[in-house]
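quick one before i forget lol
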Amino acid sequence: MRERTWPLETLKKYLVIPSVSAQGTGIKEACRFLKTLFTSLGLTAKVIDCGGNPICYAELIVNKKLPTILFYNHYDVQPPEPLEKWISPPFKPTVRGGKLFARGSSDNKGNLIARIAAVKSFLDTCPTVRPDEPFGRGHPRQNDSVGLAVRREGEKPPVNVKFVVDGEEEIGSPTLPRFISKYREMIKADMCIWESGGRDEKDNPDLALGCKGICHAELVARGAKDDLHSSKGVIVKNPAWRLIWALNSLKDSNENILIDGFYNRVRKPGSLDRKTIAKFMFYEKEKKKEWGINSFLAGLTGLKLKERFFYEPALNIDGLTSGYQGKGHKTVLPKQASAKIDFRLVPDMTPKDVLNRLRKHLDRYGFSDIEIHDFRGYPPARTPLTSPYVNIISKAQERVYKKPVMVEPLFAASGPMYLFTPLMPCFSLGVGYSGSSIHAPNENIRLTDYWMGIECIKEIMNELAMPAGR
């Protein structure tokens, strides 16, 4: 069990840091922790400021002739509220029933430390090899028949590794584009392993090849300059009603989004897409039980349900605010009403196009008075299902988990993957599971998944270095 001490204790130390980007806490501490951790293992590490929360970058270049894996992760986490729902404090890592509970355990600190631990395992057991040592004929890593590096037991990591650790993923990664633009050459790699993933309800490992885009905004309706007595509502506009009517114009009761031209850019799934999701196990009964629902939207089931989940855009209301919200009643005509909304985008949609269509829709249907604030987002991203790395990674996963891999052409959630896919193929997998409760109270990972996640990254590194994987 000694080999498990470092990964678990290191993760616990990392989870103690309350690095909540939305609240601006723990940012410097997290950067300091990561830089110290990387350098202690012999990686070259730096903290790079691009105008927002810094990005932590680290690399280990064993030999430039070897393949390179880039790991994208983030050190920021979601706010822990509501605190009263946590069984143990969110930033006091606690093991119960074979699970580690803490904010960020699954999203995303557990994944990062698992990947670092995989790299460390090679460094701990391997003799020193000079970085960039040339592979001449007769070198133990040289396969004379094909001229490619091959794996040997007792060596340094069989591939080069790079880490990009974002500090703003949970708030939309607003400064990451500047980092990518400035350091494109530095982060070059053959492939990227994205931040998160895990195992499904039947413990099958998943492998996602992309993610939906997102754009979110706040719609605001205004009335009188101050709250008024509700008796004035017979002659004074109520912004809450204005907002409700505006929202009602955006979507019908059959869940169709009514914004003119909204679906024009939606790319339809191809035959390979349909074959892939036909094999994907979407455990409807288990999901309905876990989520406490009786049915899915529009009564969908089977292949149509999966097609909607992976390939269709969405419009969601995240929150509504207006008037008195306290205990009891207060007869008030509110001066303002607001709604936070988000759109999930699929290829080939863009946030800019959605914003333009939203504004035109509101104006056209008599809601020019509804303001749009804080509109932000990024487009979707996809790695082709035909990428050779799909087979390389899934083979490694199957060896570790002894289960079939569930390939997801497009992850239903969002992330800034669009910045990386023009540079390299991206694949999402990780140490979470269906009950990890990410973004919710009592976030957790199972320790068995954590250990297996470390082994999986090691297997991927070895598989990538093999001539067949090149």
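fyi The chain has two domains: 2-209+383-469, 229-266+312-378.
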